[in-house]
Structure prediction request, 192 residues.
Amino acid sequence: MPSLPSKRVTGLLILAAAMLVTRLFHLNYPPDASWAVFFLSGFYLYRFRAFALLLVEAVMIDYVATAHLGISSYCLSVAYLFVLPAYAALWFGGRWAARQWNAVAWRPIAWLALSVVVSATLCFALTNGSFYWLGGRHADANMSGWAANFAHWYPHFLAVPCVYVSLTVLVRLVGARLVSARPGAGRHLSQH
Prediction:
């Protein structure tokens, strides 16, 4: 059985790969998993280093996509600086949910769901608000325009990380059940 650090490295590599595959070409399907990746890195990996490495990866993916792959740079502006606190909100949300987590009881699952919703909402408010107000794309920016813009995009940007996080946690729970149900799953190697 792998040691804890190697499990974390494996987890980080899986999350990094998920972000690369879904973010690099900005395809609609599968949708960009970046927000879920930052939340899950806080939930499963705990370490701030994981957050920092994933943040560097996200910025590098955006650079490569816009500078070398012909992806539109429409979303890049001074508002892009707000991805740091936005992604940090997701990571801290994952950390908070991890502290509440207990795979047996329903209450921690409700806290997990609440944490995803709250941190994704905060992330969206930071990224959407900064882009709307500071991005230079809305010459006639006003509160009603921002409210309409927020209402238009919010359901999608909330649903995507919620689906990815739900699927990930479900797969992990089912996998853990299957492993624990195997004959001899609790025995040490020295007992074989």
Summary: The chain is about 70% helix and 0% strand. Helices lie at 4-23, 34-45, 48-68, 83-100, 106-134, 143-181. Residues 101 and 109 are 7 Å apart (CA to CA).
